[in-house]
């Protein structure tokens, strides 16, 4: 079994030792909390590592950004991991479920993630932030995500949506052009600038 650093380097992703330490600590905390609170599907380290890699893989192809909001963060994928990978960027984790918000705040404080703010709200209720990148994984379709996030985006904003097999239909339905699609395993990353 490859360790996390080896997995990342095989994908041409290179981070400092603090990143890997925080990912290891996150994995342990997720296992501990997940057994009690049912936060995510599989709690095997190999599956957690794959989800971490899936979460941060887009740093290879997205443009620079100053702040981002992750919609429906759940147990931390992808937003919390993107915040760990980008400690100098302001991160808002938007999650309406209280037990997941408690977990995210616990991880934030345990790992010393000063760039993270956890919001216990639905994205359409968030009014007081403006970001230049919006991320989301497995929340809803692209059209609805674009509509629900209008109140939190700057004039120039990018979107990074983690999608599966319905991507082509969602792009047609959303009537969007100039999208970049990057595929890895069963994942399609939809990257869009407006």
Strand order in space, largest sheet: 3-2-1-4-5-7-6
Average pLDDT reading: 93
Q: Helix and strand string, N-terminal first?
A: HHHEHEHEEHEHEE
Shape: globular
Radius of gyration: 16 Å
Multimeric state of these chains?
single chain
Structural class: alpha/beta
How many beta-strand elements? Answer: 7
What's the total helix number? Answer: 7
Structural features, described:
The chain is α/β, with parallel strands linked by helices and 194 residues long. It contains seven helices and seven strands; from the N terminus they run H-H-H-E-H-E-H-E-E-H-E-H-E-E. The chain has helices spanning 4-10, 17-37, 45-56, 79-85, 98-111, 142-148, 167-174; strands at 67-71, 90-94, 116-119, 131-137, 153-163, 179-184, 187-193. It has a seven-stranded mixed sheet with strand order 3-2-1-4-5-7-6, with helices on both faces. Helix 4 (79-85) links the parallel strand 1 and strand 2. The N and C termini lie far apart (41 Å). The model has no long low-confidence stretch (mean pLDDT 93).
Would you spell out the secondary-structure blueprint of this structure?
Layout: H1 4-10, H2 17-37, H3 45-56, E1 67-71, H4 79-85, E2 90-94, H5 98-111, E3 116-119, E4 131-137, H6 142-148, E5 153-163, H7 167-174, E6 179-184, E7 187-193
Parallel strand pairs: 1-2, 1-4, 2-3, 4-5
Antiparallel strand pairs: 5-7, 6-7
Helix pairs in contact: 2-5, 6-7
